[in-house]
Amino acid sequence: MIGPRSVRYRVLFGSILWTLGLLALTHLLFIGVNRHFPQAHLVVHVSALPIFAILFMMVGILLLLSGVSPFKRLRARLSAVREGADHRVEGTYPTEVQPLVNDLNALLDHRQEAVRRALAKAGDLAHGLKTPLAVLSQEADRAEAAGQHEVAAAISQQVERMRRQIDYHLAHARAAGSGAAPGTRCSVATSAQGLSRTLLQLNAGRGLTIDVDVPAEHRVRGQREDLDEMLGNLLDNACKWAKSRVTVRSTKVDVAIVITVDDDGPGLAPEMREVVLQRGVRADEVASGSGLGLAIVRDLAELYGGSISLTDSPALGLRAELRLPAC
């Protein structure tokens, strides 16, 4: 949009004023020349002025357009960085713009390195906690074998809670660093089909059916592990409450992929749908778990610029609708 604050507006308006000034100065110059040298042949030169004026104006317009085009290219490059297609602003720019581009690239490189170190530290921390958690799990098994069922159950519950907390924060770290991994994308169909096979094996004795209707070309921006975390939590929750069938579908809406997970279970009261998306809250407080499943889905979706919502399912159960940026 061209306005008083636009560079194009200022350059164009300044050029017009400069041209008017030159025309006035040229007019005064010719008046002075005609007074001192009133020869007839000068009139021929004066009559050629409109041709030169049009030529100069055309050249000026071309120079103006070429002067603002680097800003368009810079905007396009920054959009590519924001979308994850590039990780640096490439190209050669005018001397007034190149220092800004160099500073932007230095900032992007520093951010990428900082995220890489943070992810490495988070991974080291998670790896370091695996051994203590394994020892605690063994102690729970020994307590169970010794007949100390309450102690074993308490230890196992806390170990599982700690593991979920580790997974929760690792998922956050990966998603927060996804912007530093340009071009990262994953297939919805691959995740949905793999998770469905796993959950069917885990629920083999229930006669549960999981239908997957996801086009192969549907891809979302982000890490495969994070999509598995989000979709896995939704499918696990649907399988937990479904009577006989769970359905996974995906559609493309504008620049987003909308993944829906439907079950034919008892559903969820409308006043509870926003509550269960909060961290530490479960729809069934009796059921085992840490109450982080849907909260992880919500937080990861928001970190990727998406969203999660719960509504009534056409199968009379609950529908979870996950919206993520498409690639």
Per-chain topology:
Elements (H helix, E strand, L loop, with lengths): L6 H30 L4 H7 L1 H35 L14 H48 L3 H28 L8 E3 H15 L6 E5 L5 E3 L2 H18 L3 E9 L2 E8 L6 H4 L19 H11 L3 E6 L5 E8 L2
Parallel strand pairs: 2-4
Antiparallel strand pairs: 1-3, 4-5, 5-7, 6-7
Helix pairs in contact: 1-3, 4-5, 5-9, 6-7, 7-9
What can be said about this structure in brief?
The chain has helices at residues 7-36, 41-47, 49-83, 98-145, 149-176, 188-202, 224-241, 270-273, 293-303; strands spanning 185-187, 209-213, 219-221, 245-253, 256-263, 307-312, 318-325. With 327 residues, the chain is an alpha+beta fold.
Properties at a glance:
elongated, 327 residues, alpha+beta, 9 helices, five-stranded mixed sheet, 3 domains, 60% helix, single chain, Heat Shock Protein 90
Can you walk me through this structure?
The protein has 327 residues and is α+β, with helices and mostly antiparallel strands. The protein contains 9 helices and 7 strands, in the order αααααβαββαββααββ. β6 and β7 form a beta hairpin. The longest helix is centred in the middle third of the chain and has 48 residues.
Helix content: 55-70%
Tell me the Rg in angstroms: 33 Å
Largest sheet: 5 strands, mixed
Q: Between the first and last Cα atoms, what is the distance in angstroms?
A: 28 Å
The mean pLDDT is 78
| CATH H-level superfamily of the largest domain | Histidine kinase-like ATPase, C-terminal domain
Inertia-based shape: elongated
Number of domains: 3
Query: Total strand count, please?
Result: 7
How many H/I helices?
A: 9
Find the CATH topology of the largest domain. Heat Shock Protein 90
CATH arch. level architecture of the largest domain:
2-Layer Sandwich
- Low-confidence sequence ranges: 281-291
What is the ordering of alpha helices and beta strands?
HHHHHEHEEHEEHHEE
Give me the side-by-side strand order of the main sheet: 2-4-5-7-6
Percentage of residues in strands: 5-15%
Please write the CATH class name of the largest domain. Alpha Beta
The class by helix and strand makeup works out as: alpha+beta
